[in-house]
Amino acid sequence: MKAFIYAETAPQMSALCGCARAYADAVEAVAIGDELKDAALADKVFHIATQAGVMVEDYTETIADLIANEQPDFVFIETTRRNKLIAGRIAALLGTSVMTDVIELAENGTAKHLVYGGAATRTEKATGPVAIYLLGSDVLPNHDAQGANEIVEVPFITPVSQVKCRSVAKKEKSAVNLSASQTVVGIGRGIAKEDDLVMIRAFADAIEGEVGCTRPIAEEEKWLPREVYIGVSGVMLAPEVYVAIGLSGQVQHTVGINRAKTIIAINKEASAPIFKQADYGIVGDLYKVIPALTEAFGK
Amino acid sequence: MDFGLSEEQELLFENLADLVEREWDEEAYNDCYYNKHCYPRDFIMKLQEAGFTMLGVPEEFGGTPVDTVTMVMFAKELARMTGASLPCASNAISIDDILSFGSPEQQRIVLDYVAQNGSAPFALGFSEPQAGSDSSGILTTATRKDGKVYISGHKTMVTDADTSPYLLCITKNLEEPVAFKAMSMWLVPMDAPGVRLEPLHKIGLRTSGFHEVYLENVELPESSLLGVEGAGFMQLMKNFEIERLMLVAIGVGMAEAAFEEVARYANYREQFGKPLGQFQLIQEKITDMAIKLENMKNIIFKTAWEKDNGRSVQIGSALAKRYCAMASFEVLDEAMQIMGGMGYTEESRISRMWLDARHLRIAGGTDEIMVHIAGRAILKNYK
Amino acid sequence: MNVVACVKVVPDDQDLTVSPDYTLDFDRARPSISTYDLNAVEEGVRLVEDNGGSLKVLTVGDSSIDDSKLKKNILSRGADDLLMVADEDMKAMDAHQTACALKAALAKIDSYDLILCGDGSADLYAQQVGAQLGQLLGIPVINCVSKITVENGAVIAERTLEHEVEILEIPMPAVISVTSDINLPRIAGMKQILAAGKKPAVVLRATDLEYAALATIEVLETLAPKETDRKHIIIEGDSDEAIAAFIANVAKVI
Fold this sequence. Notes:
The complex is a heterotrimer.
Chain A: E1 2-6, H1 10-19, E2 26-32, E3 44-48, H2 60-70, E4 74-78, H3 81-94, E5 98-99, E6 104-105, E7 111-115, E8 120-126, E9 131-135, E10 150-154, E11 164-170, E12 183-187, H4 197-206, E13 210-213, H5 215-220, E14 241-245, H6 251-254, E15 262-267, E16 280-283, H7 286-297
Parallel strand pairs in A: 1-2, 1-4, 2-3, 3-10, 4-9, 5-9, 12-13, 12-14, 14-15, 15-16
Antiparallel strand pairs in A: 6-7, 7-8
Helix pairs in contact in A: 2-3, 4-7
Chain B: H1 7-23, H2 26-36, H3 41-49, H4 68-82, H5 91-101, H6 104-117, E1 122-125, E2 141-145, E3 148-159, E4 166-172, H7 179-182, E5 183-189, E6 195-199, E7 210-221, E8 225-226, H8 232-236, H9 240-268, E9 270-271, E10 274-275, H10 280-308, H11 314-339, H12 349-358, H13 367-381
Parallel strand pairs in B: 1-4
Antiparallel strand pairs in B: 2-3, 3-7, 4-5, 5-8, 6-7, 9-10
Chain C: E1 2-6, E2 9-11, E3 17-18, E4 24-25, E5 31-33, H1 35-51, E6 54-61, H2 68-75, E7 81-86, H3 95-106, E8 114-117, H4 129-137, E9 141-151, E10 154-160, E11 164-171, E12 174-178, H5 190-196, E13 201-204, E14 217-223, E15 233-236, H6 240-250
Parallel strand pairs in C: 1-6, 1-8, 6-7, 7-13, 8-12, 9-12
Antiparallel strand pairs in C: 2-5, 3-4, 9-10, 10-11
Helix pairs in contact in C: 2-5, 3-4
């Protein structure tokens, strides 16, 4: 079995190359530019020289052509928004479909991913000669990357695309990295107004947690950045503790917190579905409960 | 008989549900209701943007004409989804008098105001201290002098008097012996000299004001007359049957909201080691509430259908008004009983709906007046 | 400009139920417009309002999507007309098949300047069809677009990625997938709902198209997850005593 690896970031390139050893005896990386040329990554590194004035997307044809020629069994592509586009275009060129957002990959190549807003897990496999996956190394068994790194130069195929990138602005880094936080406080529509976030943040600080939210809080109210919205089209978490405040617990949200070790719910509606998934809960006014919690745990 | 909704009606209510899900804010409404005593303007304006406050208004006035069944269903669904008494579903009825009988200038005032506020620009000044159910006994007068009109009198229980720019004031020509030929309608600007308000404090419906309105020689131009002099009563009564249906549709919607809430509550609230719903005393309440809800919905929708099909609803609308005013309150009262102490607090919307629904037995013609209308008419059919 | 918004018809996931064997039961789920595709339609409406032209909605799927209410629902959102391909041969297509079907359907349309897709479908959320469609058509394709303006016949798109925001100049025709926060899709009023029934809706079968694409993905099973065992220690009420008891409970883990 032969696996191709393509990642946007160096750490994921290395991690995925390592993980791929569990699935393939030949691990071959596709690298744009020189950053990873000298790291012991894989058996082979297909090196595409950086081209001036092109977007990353403009390497799509080159990578697709390489896959068509080299015929790997598996192609592992790091899940990023940009790669969603690149992988889709590669699949179109190869006449197949990508298995996206893989949460589990069996040795024989069958993959699982969440469907119906997280209500179910679908198991699927590619029917054609090559299987393309969008995934992160966190869902695969960990192995250290290694290999002879035999460099193979790949000529750049000039694409037809005429998309011009006028500018790139670094996003203001929301200091928050929810996925890395062991304690997460999630808020929903039960929070009456934006000013009340002060109270929520005080509580989060008291328990050394980060604040996330449901989709409406990020996308309709825009009280919090989209990066901290938890759910099927947002971030998926597995913290030690998740505190759900004033959120009902719709499946589109709870799919993002199901893997939390402990779930704590605060909601004034006893019928809120979140209580069915909670380890600890209180049916009461969050405006009474939260200040009391902040007081108790802030010491 | 077809009890199904049309595809258009289904889509209408799905879109309304989306809007309520997106925009309804229970905390903000309670703040309006219990603290600020103000109109839930933000939410009403969302209804306005989607065109829902102009449902039933003719197309030439920028509305969307729909049949009576759809209007009644919409009023019921809005109340069910929000658990609130929001009269804006009846705008088409409130403003119909102006659109039907008013001058182009009066029509423009009303349509502009609805477009900007989602509600009609006037409060109705009809009842007086001595003339409640006996509305023919009003004593407010309009007198002419030097090309001007002077209004004098005392209106009471005027909803929204403090927030409306106009009073739709009914006056009486005391010389005219035939009551229904004696009344006229005037659009009185609330800021005119001689208009004075004194508040009354309702126990429910607290998002709107309730006032005594004193009119002392309020000077108006002739153009303030609405429609035809002496035809005021007939103009006012043009839609009163549908008005009654729309009014109680709100009660039916609130009763349904409470019913759905307590039915769920009975399934999870445990007492004596088991869910409330496993006690037959609670099952009996749930069953009887369901029967009343079925009856209420049947009678309002059927009466609306009769209206749409050109049949007389003189008796039907009185029966529907009387029955639904009483039964919706009974359902809310039983909902409060199932909820127990929590249902009696301001934390639960059941208590709010209970307060609101009680007024339906009084407003728009009391339960007793409905007997007066229906009783005589039914017996006449068997003479 | 002539805009085509692609939408997928999916079972309404509010109505999905899980059977005892963890399979999903779709019996009560009515066909509905995939939520995220409403953003594509809304953006199309907005672009046509600002720049003139027309908006067509395009959808492909199995024969059940040829549903009168669904068509009115789609057209009540502001599009001028609808092109639907409904055929049992198009049941449960994968991303590649769907893109091939859309391409074949687009061949039936005189001209288009911009094809809009949603962020991902509400059922599978693979976010792949837009990317595949653009590639198959051989025209520019970009995803994650959070703002669109039109300048001198080109689309100026703001594209929001994880750590950066790109401003792109995309010549038309192009395929653009929009994010779910690009706009707030409007609520359809009764006027729009009534008008929808009178708008043109063309329904084609697979045989009307030049379309033949075999499945590239085999679905082995679709199962609801077994629920994680939770402790369910819930305190009712927010009296001082109740809150104290709750604090004592959560102190074990916080």
